[in-house]
């Protein structure tokens, strides 16, 4: 991204801390509250019409980053920009409309007491997007857009399968005519047989509606299929970002290499060659230096004291590692 390019959504030094819960005794003794930095200084920018894939192990901060970008969490520090304009902690209705989210669990993300028509019409009426006499027509259009029967408006979520519920969630997000869609593990809770159809739907909608998308997933194969660029996240930081095929064919950061090599190569029949050693350390144990050093097979002494920043490897490809030039 050039310095003058305006993108749909970007973050600069984004930080999100969560205060660790204390016991009543600790609160009585007024012990200091430890904050867990789930997202720690993330700077990303997603270009118009682009899909940025975000991958990493569970607990790395992927979902927290997505929820902070959409405004469900207030950032502890750093900036979020929508089309070049900084957004505050309290977003305007227009700013909320521009960025919408598809949640991981299609069962808990829908209100079981509301019909599908009520869910869709609520958003349309609240934001005054269509006249009242046109609301039902627009709801019908949204159902058709995501491949659901148009006579489903009076049905409840319990009457649908998991894949159909996720399509309802997509329709609800599209009701506000967003510019940016954040898909947070949108297919991970679905049967494998259903995942492909939902992924294809998202790709078609992105193309037809001109959407910009952040696709969060631990399924590396799916991310490779849908993404233009990929960002790899580890313990709250982005450690590598670049064009999808370049990152897959020429990974630079040691964590990216191990993450990609842990995926079985089904077409060749090869087994997992390597996996990141050990368990993901807690943020409390990270005091200084590179966060991956305790699991890195090529770590050197300097890694214990220097916290590397993202730096350019070539055009559009960056990595945060002292040993990558």
From TrEMBL:
<comment type="similarity">
    <text>Belongs to the ABC transporter superfamily.</text>
</comment>
<dbReference type="InterPro" id="IPR050319">
    <property type="entry name" value="ABC_transp_ATP-bind"/>
</dbReference>
<dbReference type="InterPro" id="IPR017871">
    <property type="entry name" value="ABC_transporter-like_CS"/>
</dbReference>
<dbReference type="InterPro" id="IPR027417">
    <property type="entry name" value="P-loop_NTPase"/>
</dbReference>
<dbReference type="Pfam" id="PF08352">
    <property type="entry name" value="oligo_HPY"/>
</dbReference>
<protein>
    <submittedName>
        <fullName>Unannotated protein</fullName>
    </submittedName>
</protein>
<keyword id="KW-0547">Nucleotide-binding</keyword>
<feature type="domain" description="ABC transporter">
    <location>
        <begin position="20"/>
        <end position="260"/>
    </location>
</feature>
<dbReference type="GO" id="GO:0016887">
    <property type="term" value="F:ATP hydrolysis activity"/>
</dbReference>
<dbReference type="InterPro" id="IPR003439">
    <property type="entry name" value="ABC_transporter-like_ATP-bd"/>
</dbReference>
<dbReference type="GO" id="GO:0005524">
    <property type="term" value="F:ATP binding"/>
</dbReference>
<dbReference type="InterPro" id="IPR013563">
    <property type="entry name" value="Oligopep_ABC_C"/>
</dbReference>
<dbReference type="Pfam" id="PF00005">
    <property type="entry name" value="ABC_tran"/>
</dbReference>
<dbReference type="GO" id="GO:0015833">
    <property type="term" value="P:peptide transport"/>
</dbReference>
<keyword id="KW-0067">ATP-binding</keyword>
<dbReference type="GO" id="GO:0055085">
    <property type="term" value="P:transmembrane transport"/>
</dbReference>
<dbReference type="InterPro" id="IPR003593">
    <property type="entry name" value="AAA+_ATPase"/>
</dbReference>
<keyword id="KW-0813">Transport</keyword>
């Amino acid at each position: 991204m050039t310095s003058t390019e305006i993108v749909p959504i970007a973050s600069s030094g984004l930080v999100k801390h969560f205060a660790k819960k204390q016991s009543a005794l600790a609160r009585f003794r007024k012990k200091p509250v430890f904050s867990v930095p789930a997202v720690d200084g993330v700077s990303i920018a997603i270009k118009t019409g682009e899909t940025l894939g975000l991958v990493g192990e569970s607990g790395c901060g992927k979902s927290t980053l997505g929820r902070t970008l959409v405004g469900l969490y207030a950032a502890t520090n750093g900036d979020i920009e929508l089309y070049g304009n900084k957004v505050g902690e309290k977003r305007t209705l227009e700013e909320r409309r521009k960025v919408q989210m598809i949640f991981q669990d299609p069962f808990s993300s829908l209100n079981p007491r509301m019909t599908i028509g009520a869910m869709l019409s609520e958003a349309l009426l609240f934001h005054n997007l269509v006249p009242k006499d046109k609301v039902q027509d627009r709801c019908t259009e949204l159902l058709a857009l995501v491949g659901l029967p148009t006579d489903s408006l009076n049905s409840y979520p319990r009457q649908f399968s998991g894949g159909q519920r996720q399509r309802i969630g997509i329709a609800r997000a599209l009701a506000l005519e967003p510019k940016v869609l954040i898909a947070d593990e949108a297919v991970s809770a679905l049967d494998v047989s259903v995942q492909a159809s939902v992924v294809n739907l998202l790709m078609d909608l992105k193309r037809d509606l001109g959407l910009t998308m952040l696709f969060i997933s631990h399924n590396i194969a799916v991310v490779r299929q849908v993404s233009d660029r990929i960002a790899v996240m580890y313990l709250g930081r982005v450690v590598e970002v670049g064009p999808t095929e370049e990152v897959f064919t020429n990974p630079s950061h040691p964590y990216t290499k191990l993450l990609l090599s842990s995926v079985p190569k089904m077409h060749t029949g090869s087994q997992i060659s390597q996996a990141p050693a050990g368990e993901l350390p807690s943020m409390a144990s990270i005091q200084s230096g590179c966060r991956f050093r305790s699991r890195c097979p090529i770590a050197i002494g300097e890694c214990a004291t220097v916290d590397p920043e993202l730096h350019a490897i070539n055009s559009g490809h960056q990595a945060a590692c002292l040993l990558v030039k």
